[in-house]
């Protein structure tokens, strides 16, 4: 077993090259724009073209951070997703190949709604502890779709967050303090035979907040800590207003100056999510990345509390400690360019794109990737096999 600190050494992001404005969507749906921008806390929604799926997005995110040394030392690849492309083959096997990782690696896919990104992170930390000197690649990649004109439509999104896990990390140490809980509920689920998920929106939000309250209380009891022991908190944020409600739960009873400080931090945490939407398994880590990129009040040694939630349900609270010069490990320019270089779609263009799905009848198909300049794309389907292209 390794006695070294283990955690996140690199973190990368991929977003599709298209988005819609939430004000435009609200007007088209006959809603007050404030319902989406203030009530949900969302401003833009990432829209994936047919040339991107969870595998290609994950591989694109990984390419942002991997170098040749990483490729030689990675021996675990984890894809966390709830929008997988195959009922048997793990998407991580494709990613392992597309990113050029050495052959003697374990590749798996994990599922538990939006929680499995955290499960993948914890698995990777345990793996590194048992295999000193190795590295692990964990990618949370998802496409959130509820259907046009549905109640969940304004909480859609798409994207992937990739993390390199190793000893002596240069961004954040993952502390061995996690507390999890499970409860068998039906707040959000996706039967194999349905195109879109079944959702009990208000009930799901209530369950999210109740699980948070209970797992946070248990965490405090086990580790004898209070809100004062944390500089900032990050949350799973399917829409950023829910994370704000979660923060209120966590800081209940705290001094007013501490509450004001935590609220200030949270505003930085949600900036990227406000402009990307819900990316399911990657949502928590998009919030973490947003803090790293945008929050000028964080510094080395700060303790970050993290709450992960996946409907159905599993919740977990854990903490991370920022290390010296963590911002230097992040490609700020690449992340900013993802947002700056996106093409805005009209609502009609978005709806046309939404209904343009890859065939499910086994027929051969070539995607239209003319507007997608991503390094890795889905070029089509042949003989029931997705054709990925590295450019």
What do you see in this structure?
The chain has 391 residues and is α+β, with helices and mostly antiparallel strands. The chain folds into 2 domains: 6-172 and 330-390, Peroxisomal Thiolase, Chain A, domain 1 (3-Layer(aba) Sandwich); 174-327, Peroxisomal Thiolase, Chain A, domain 1, CATH 3.40.47. 34% of the residues lie in helices and 25% in strands. It contains 13 helices and 18 strands. It has helices at residues 22-28, 33-39, 54-63, 68-73, 91-98, 116-130, 201-223, 240-250, 256-269, 271-274, 283-294, 332-340, 347-354; strands at residues 6-14, 18-21, 44-47, 74-80, 106-110, 135-144, 157-167, 172-174, 179-182, 188-189, 198-199, 232-235, 303-310, 314-322, 343-344, 365-366, 376-382, 385-390. Strands 1, 4, 5, 6, 7, 8, 9, 12, 13 and 14 form a 10-stranded mixed β-sheet that branches. The protein has a 3-stranded mixed β-sheet with strand order 3-2-15. It has a 3-stranded antiparallel β-sheet with strand order 16-17-18, with helices on one face. Helix 7 runs parallel beside helix 8 (240-250).
């Amino acid at each position: 077993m390794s006695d070294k600190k283990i955690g996140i050494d690199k973190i990368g992001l991929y977003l599709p090259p298209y988005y819609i404005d939430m004000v435009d969507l609200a007007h088209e749906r006959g809603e007050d724009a404030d319902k989406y921008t203030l009530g949900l806390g969302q401003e833009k929604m990432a829209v994936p073209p047919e040339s991107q799926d969870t595998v290609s997005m994950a591989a694109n995110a990984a390419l942002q951070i991997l170098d040749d040394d990483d490729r030689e030392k990675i021996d675990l690849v984890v894809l966390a997703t709830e929008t997988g492309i195959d009922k048997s083959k793990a998407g991580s096997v494709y990613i392992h190949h597309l990113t050029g990782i050495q052959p003697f690696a374990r590749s798996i896919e994990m599922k538990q709604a939006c929680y499995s990104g955290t499960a993948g992170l914890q698995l990777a930390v345990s793996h590194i502890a048992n295999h000193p000197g190795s590295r692990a690649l964990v990618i949370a990649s998802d496409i959130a779709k509820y259907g046009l004109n549905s109640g969940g439509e304004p909480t859609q999104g798409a994207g992937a967050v990739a993390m390199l896990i190793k000893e002596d990390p240069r961004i954040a140490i993952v502390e061995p303090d996690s507390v999890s809980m499970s409860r068998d509920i039906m707040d959000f689920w996706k039967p194999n035979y349905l195109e879109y998920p079944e959702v009990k929106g208000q009930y799901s939000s209530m369950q999210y907040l109740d699980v948070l309250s209970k797992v946070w209380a248990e965490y405090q009891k086990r580790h004898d800590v209070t809100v004062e022991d944390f500089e900032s908190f990050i949350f799973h944020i399917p829409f950023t207003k829910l994370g704000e409600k979660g923060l209120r739960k966590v800081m209940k009873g705290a001094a007013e100056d501490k509450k004001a400080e935590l609220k200030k931090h949270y505003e930085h945490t949600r900036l990227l999510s406000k402009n990307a939407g819900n990316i399911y398994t990657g949502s928590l880590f998009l919030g973490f990345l947003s803090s790293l990129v945008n929050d000028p009040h964080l510094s080395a040694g700060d303790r970050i509390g993290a709450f992960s939630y996946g409907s159905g349900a599993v919740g977990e609270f854990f903490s991370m400690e920022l290390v010296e010069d963590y911002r230097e490990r992040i490609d700020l320019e690449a992340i900013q360019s993802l947002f700056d270089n996106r093409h805005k779609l009209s609502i009609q263009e978005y709806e046309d794109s939404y209904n343009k799905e890859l065939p499910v009848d086994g027929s051969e198909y070539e995607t239209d990737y003319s507007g997608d300049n991503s390094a890795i794309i889905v070029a089509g389907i042949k003989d029931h096999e997705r054709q990925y292209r590295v450019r």
